[in-house]
Amino acid sequence: MPSKRPQGLNKAAKNKKQKVAPNENNGPEKDQTPDFTIALEDEVDPDDELAQLYGLYETYRESSKDSPKLLYGLVHECDRLLRNSTEKLPSRFHNIYAISLLDLAKFVETEDDQPKKKSGNNGESCADFILAAIERASIGIEESSDSIADLYFTLSRAKLALVDEKLKNSPSESRYDEAINILPELKEAVSDFETAEKFLLESGKSFLDFSKDQLGAVEDLLQIVDGFIALEDENEAESDPAASTENIERGRLRSLNDKYLEWSKDRYQRILETSVESKGKNKDPNGSSVSVVLWANRGMGQYYLALAAPLLAKLDDGADEDEDEDDSEDEDEDEDDNDESIALSPEELQSAKDLVQKAVDYLFKAESDDDPETYTVVAEALISLANLFEVESDDQRRLYSQAVLRLRKAQRLGFGSYQELIADLED
Amino acid sequence: MTADSKRLIDNNSVVGEEATKKQKTESSSEIGIAGSFSENLLTDEQAKGALKVSIETSGPYKHGVIKPLINDELLRKVRTEILNELHFTRKETDIYKVNQTGDLANLSGLDEEELSKLASLAKLREALYSKEFREYLSYVAQSGPLSGVKQDMSINLYDKGCHLLNHDDVIGSRRISYILYLTDPDKAWKAKWGGALRLYPTVVPNIPEADWSVSLPPAWNQLSFFTVQPGLSFHDVEEVSFDKPRLSISGWFHIPQKGEEGFVEGEQEETEARSSLRQLQSRELLDYDFPKRDFMSYDLENTSAGSDFTDEDRKYLSKFLNPKHLTNEAIAELSENFGDNSMLSIEGFLNPEYSEIAKGLIDGEDLSPNMPKHSSEVTEPWKLARPPHKQRYLYLDGPDSEHSVDKLPKTEKLLVELGQLFHHVSFRKWLYCISTFTPTEGSCIARRFRPGYDFTLATSHDSEEQVLEATLSLTPSEGWGDGELGGYDLCMAVDEEDEDDPAVYKGGSKEKDEDSVLFTNQPSWNVFHLIVRDKGLLRFVKYVSKSAPGSRWDLTAEWKVAPEDEDEE
């Protein structure tokens, strides 16, 4: 069976070197783009163009989503089907079209930071793609009678994306005013999500029938209103306190943050409750909702972290006054002296500990090897919690070592490099 | 053969070796020499006496620390000059990774304009090799007289990931090794950033202990030094593990040269003879090498040419291996590939079920916070590969005398089981089918290379007889990047005509780098690599960085093979 006897690695390499032709340009092209396999559902008619579109979309959903290539393919295919169609198309078609446009917007945005080059293939801006997604979802809602919850979820996400885009592009000096002006659009997006929920209940479906991407509006909303806090802080710092009554909107963004934080929490909580109920009824035998449940746990964790944020910020401010590790010339003298820097009352400290502990409890349930970022989120929360305990206490050490374990996990799954942080925590 | 310190030293850029023969070194430049040092350094007799005593009583071998050494203002100027005027290039071999000054081979070789840009550096060199300081150092270290003519300095920048593994610095006429740190003068270096000079005691002369006993972290304007003692002065430079630049000037004071005060006819030759003695690798010293790599002899009746690879063999191997590599078609393809290249890599080597179990177990072990660090923490059945001027890693060569395989913990049991598979007659038949070699004796161990500790230095294959070497990569972690974190297994060809360090594979010419490296095996999961190792191949596993996501795990086997004509019979 064996063919020829190998010469030995060194000898084989030397002989090859002599034989290899100097012109290497004739070799096969490197970095050829791999072909995508289009997954078709079982028993799907290969001539059914819609089924093929759904297959292509499933391929995109399961891909790493780090390239717009498949999205351009999807949009192109949707365009073609729309042009050639003589009948009304189903809501799933419109939803795929809208989602593809919306996801494409992210690539337009991240491809280049230069505003002039912010464009798609035909010069469209990020906002153009989002507007097209809103239009498509709205048409879908008008034309369809079935499964429009999906379309409302997408519409809600698209409207939030537009709010975010507008805020990002507004000059920093007028961003506060822009945020105030944009509030009706934000409310509309929230209202669309609530409409989706109504349709969802009517159709007998639950949150667990949706993916975390479809429900993404909850997370997007939290991110936007989280930014409101910073805007409010900046605005307060710049305003003349004596003239505060002139600005009737003052504090409005902060209160909105509180409101929507609770709103998001309700959604996450409902998902988790549904999950508990469905377990009993064995409604989810394939475990397809696992990622939604993980996501909801993460959301709950982040909710409690957000509640603790003002207290943690106070603690950080106190610590910063005393300890500026990188810039201080006599850091050694200051370094161990951060007991006094804790500017929290005993009640505040206890409250912060309780909130972060709750966050950690939820975040533990969000950990997944499929999403290594979750380990870093948990580690960060554990470090925050550890910092609320006495320096070098057993509790602090225990929490740091739990955090280290998670940073190592994230690192070994290829998500980031945390060696310096690990060394700091183990110090 | 192992890589020795010669490599490093020969490749260091030398600021002033024998550079100052034409310059004033003895008397006329002495005015102002004391001013180049920290206040009263050379005149404070009490401090001098105390330093002498502390060096005399130091261990593991005579060493000392002076801080501050140089006039602060002068050293700050030197630092600025170096950072502004000199260019560093990164060099990497099996024993080090470091940034060196590439455009400064010899300070005296520079023209006046260039020299004027490095005036403070020249002044520092003059001070260090001045008669006063040499006498001072010779007295406190009780080293005997030091040469003022033969000057030997280099500038190194260790940034994140840089390191220098264990060696003894014994080459030629070196008498004192020193390192002067030029870290950020306004921000104290922290020990946890790494970069410490670590000194190793010896088990017997020429055999360093597995662990260092003294660690001297860098500090601005600190001179750390030790007397170069053949067979004793083993040391390494800990990896810098934070993004902080550790700039230093290091070098040697040599024994006096002909014509200098203190010159002794034949002294250098005697030192050189002593230092080369260890190169002979006497049998007694090899007794201290671990692992021992005991070879198991095989019964060849069923494995030589003509014996069939049967369905029974397939059935047995399928318990461990992916059956797709055991079909006649797969074997034919592998055999052709191996015949052409003398190497092959097989991904997905273990079958999916076995692979999953193995990954779970090794991953759990890898994540455990109880990774042994000090040699005393290594417990049976694991052992520590040593001495550290050749290698350091954990290995498993079978159950220890007190345990049977069944009583081993799960992970160790699995690794031993896989090791035994490599000796199994069915596996050897498969090996014959793809390689045409009949294994006659084999040795297999499981290895774990821990971040921040482990490596093997290059060993060469000097025999005309070929051997088969296999490595099954069993590293469960991802995120090893493109080699920056080390842990890769590398084979390179030795070019007998090349005078450069044979193990320099990064930092040489691009063409040479690409040509000399014949095979690399990055830490990965479930990939089997097989090579025919022939004469002139260097092989090593690069030091695993502290920043690596986990340990490199593998199983490595070596088979002696029957000569070709015997196989054909």
Automatic annotation (TrEMBL), chain A:
Region listing for Disordered, in residue ranges: 1-35, 318-349
Recorded GO CC terms: nucleus
Primary location class: nucleus
Keywords: Nucleus, Transcription, Transcription regulation, Translation regulation
UniProt-annotated location(s): Nucleus
UniProt feature, compositional bias: Acidic residues: 318-340
Keyword Cytoplasm: no
Pfam families xref list: Nro1 (PF12753)
An individual GO BP term: regulation of translation
InterPro entries: Nro1/ETT1 (IPR024318)
Family under the similarity heading: Belongs to the ETT1 family.
Name used for this protein in its record: Enhancer of translation termination 1
Protein source organism: Sugiyamaella lignohabitans
Lineage: Eukaryota, Fungi, Dikarya, Ascomycota, Saccharomycotina
Gene name for this UniProt entry: ETT1
UniProtKB/TrEMBL annotation, chain B:
Catalysed reaction equations from the record: [ribosomal protein uS12]-L-proline + 2-oxoglutarate + O2 = [ribosomal protein uS12]-(3S)-3-hydroxy-L-proline + succinate + CO2; [ribosomal protein uS12]-(3S)-3-hydroxy-L-proline + 2-oxoglutarate + O2 = [ribosomal protein uS12]-(3S)-3,4-dihydroxy-L-proline + succinate + CO2
Gene3D superfamilies registered for this protein in UniProt: Oxoglutarate/iron-dependent oxygenase, C-terminal degradation domain, q2cbj1_9rhob like domain
Location, primary (coarse class): nucleus
Keywords: Dioxygenase, Iron, Metal-binding, Nucleus, Oxidoreductase, Vitamin C
SMART domains given in the database record: P4Hc
Domain Fe2OG dioxygenase: from-to ranges: 149-255
Region (Disordered): 1-29
Molecular function in Gene Ontology: ferrous iron binding; L-ascorbic acid binding; oxygen sensor activity; peptidyl-proline dioxygenase activity; poly(A) binding; protein sequestering activity
Record InterPro entries: Oxoglu/Fe-dep_dioxygenase_dom (IPR005123), Oxoglutarate/Fe-dep_Oase_C (IPR019601), Pro_4_hyd_alph (IPR006620), TPA1/Ofd1_C (IPR043044), TPA1/OFD1_N (IPR039558), uS12_prolyl_hydroxylase (IPR051842)
GO biological processes: cellular response to hypoxia; negative regulation of SREBP signaling pathway; nuclear-transcribed mRNA catabolic process, deadenylation-dependent decay; positive regulation of proteasomal ubiquitin-dependent protein catabolic process; regulation of translational fidelity; regulation of translational termination; translational termination
Matching PROSITE patterns: FE2OG_OXY (PS51471)
Domain of life: Eukaryota
Pfam family, one: Ofd1_CTDD
One Gene Ontology cellular component: cytoplasm
Essential cofactor(s): L-ascorbate
Family: Belongs to the TPA1 family.
Protein name, entry field: uS12 prolyl 3,4-dihydroxylase
Gene designation: TPA1
